[in-house]
Design goal:
There is one protein chain. With about 120 residues, this protein is of the alpha+beta class. The protein is built from three helices and five strands. It has a five-stranded antiparallel sheet, covered by helices on one side. Strand 4 (about 80-90) and strand 5 (about 95-100) form a beta hairpin. Helix 1 (about 15-35) packs across helix 2 and helix 2 (about 65-75) runs antiparallel to helix 3. The radius of gyration is 13 Å and the shape is globular. The two termini are about 15 Å apart.
Length: about 120
Amino acid sequence: MAADSDVLISFLDTDLATANDLAGDLAESLIGDTSTLSVSRLRRDPLTQDFGATLAIVLGSTAGAALAKGIAKWLARRQDAHLHLKRTARNGQVREITLDGQPSARIERIVVDFFKD
């Protein structure tokens, strides 16, 4: 990861073409909902011609709750998605969670807790 405040989001159990589509859809949704986020797409393999199936998000100081809400909202709409989130906390600990697309307030709470240090 490029910085301690970065979050990497990838898509589990998904072929590259589908993951690429999901990454684009999630990126558009997050940017539309939360204009303060910096979202970049990364390629799994630099030799492929995809746009990037992994998202790298740089968090501002108050963006964690907004990002959690955006992810929960997107997962409620895309119940076929399986997200893997990875970040480094301020204390240097690498934190990871996996989420399945299920409409639930619990998902938002889990993601909010994931962003707390």
